[in-house]
Amino acid sequence: ACGGLIQSSILAQPGASTVYYGGTVAYNTRRSKKFLLNDDDLHASLIAPFDDDDDGIESGESERYVRTKIERTRRASTVFCESIGTDFAIAEGGAAGPTFRPRDLDRGFAAISPWRGGTRVHGSRRDREGEGRPIPSRPSGRGT
């Protein structure tokens, strides 16, 4: 639900158009293959059934759902960065509510995966204000 806000925040910075290639927001994953670089593997991974608990950890359906969303978001940022040939890519996924699948998920969450070439940035804080980093007013390099 915050994909458009991420793009808007980047583009609000002076000079962003010199480094920002573009973005896509795909809310209906099943119908969004064209928005996902028309990449068969990426699209299939995003619409596949959620992972079974094959890691030996007992968890509920909502925990598997969140864990799978995080992995899918990581994969999307990696594929975008590599396919477009940019230095950075940001992918976002999650659930905003008010109704959730699975039913035992009782609050919204966002999985955000910035990807820089070969470096993944990961945070697990629940304080989204504290997680944010300001975007430099004079960006340099290539980005998406």
Gist?
It comes from Odontella aurita. This protein is 31% helix and 12% strand. The protein has 144 residues and is an alpha+beta fold.
Provide structural commentary.
With 144 residues, the chain is of the alpha+beta class. It has a single domain (3-131), classed as Maf protein (Alpha-Beta Complex), CATH 3.90.950. The protein has 4 helices and 3 strands. A 3-stranded antiparallel beta sheet has the order 1-2-3, with helices on one face. The longest helix is centred in the middle third of the chain and has 24 residues, at 61-84.
Describe the secondary-structure layout:
Blueprint: H1 3-11, H2 40-47, H3 61-84, E1 88-95, E2 109-116, E3 119-120, H4 128-131
Features:
Maf protein; 3-stranded antiparallel sheet; globular; disordered C terminus
Following the backbone from N to C, one meets helices and strands in this order, namely HHHEEEH
Residue share in β-strands: 5-15%
Shape: globular
- Helix content range: 25-40%
The quaternary structure here is single chain
Any idea of the CATH topology?
Maf protein
Q: Give the total of beta strands.
A: 3
